[in-house]
Design brief:
247 residues; alpha/beta; 7-stranded parallel beta sheet; 5-stranded mixed beta sheet; 31% helix; 25% strand
Length: 247
């Protein structure tokens, strides 16, 4: 499985490259795309998609959401499966992702950790079993993360929203009580925290706390390459971690 890494020169791009060099899930690093490419990369790395290699089996993207339009156009034009591991997309970019998935197999998840996928499933089950409970989500990341709340926290809230009609409140200040059904999300940005997501589900008599903590960003590279292996040979469509867990 030959992989093209979009964002190869970035931190996560390098993590994917290192794991692919070990043959994880049958991956082989074949090419890259990054505007910071300087010729020192171990594989051919173009500065843009117009110059990128098409002799690959799948694209793994860890770049920036502003690259979404060019990335989708390249993947669709060359009928290449795409693992989109970048967050922070605008509503227009999300719509373009859905449209592209009609033509290529496209894996799009807010978080590529299997543990987080299980956390979401458990949070949904808990919210469903305790419809009267109040729910708060606390997410913590390093001080370089630019989007808040995190895509994972929003994904947790969205999943819970499928079993209860709950407005999402990001942060809380001022005066006034919380509504019974709202889901609160709170963001912490500090130091080198890789990623911590905590879901608190509580009534006046008991509280269940579900927590996932990432110890290394390499876990996201593992998930992305697992997703690439999952996509190869699948028909066009939009896939996520739940799709892969079900296999």
């Amino acid at each position: 499985m030959k992989i093209l890494v979009s964002g190869l020169c970035g931190f996560m791009g390098k993590e994917v490259a290192a794991l692919a060099s070990e043959g994880y899930r049958g991956a082989q690093l074949a090419a890259g795309v990054d505007p910071l490419a300087d010729g020192s990369q171990a594989v051919p790395c173009a500065k843009n998609f117009a110059q990128a290699s098409t002799d690959v089996d799948c694209i793994v993207d860890f770049s920036h959401h502003s690259c979404t339009e060019d990335l989708l156009a390249f993947a669709v034009a060359n009928k290449l499966p795409l693992v989109l591991a970048t967050t922070g997309q605008t509503e227009e970019e999300k719509a373009a992702i859905v449209q592209a998935a009609k033509e290529i197999p496209l894996f799009f998840a807010a978080n590529y950790s299997l543990g987080v996928a299980l956390l979401i499933e458990l949070a949904v089950q808990t919210a469903k079993a305790m419809p009267e409970a109040e729910i708060e989500i606390i997410e913590q990341h390093h001080d370089r993360k630019i989007d808040a709340p995190s895509g994972t926290a929003l994904a947790i809230a969205e999943a819970i929203g499928q079993v209860r009609n709950a407005p999402v409140v990001s942060g809380r200040n001022g005066h006034g009580k919380r509504t019974a059904q709202e889901i609160g999300i709170h963001s912490v940005r500090m130091g080198n925290i890789v990623g911590i997501h905590e879901v608190m589900v509580g009534t006046k008599n008991q509280t269940i706390t579900l927590k996932h903590e990432a110890h290394s960003r390499a876990l996201f590279a593992e998930g992305a390459l697992a997703a690439a292996a999952f996509l190869c040979g699948t028909p066009a469509g939009l896939y996520d971690m739940k799709s892969m867990i079900g296999e």
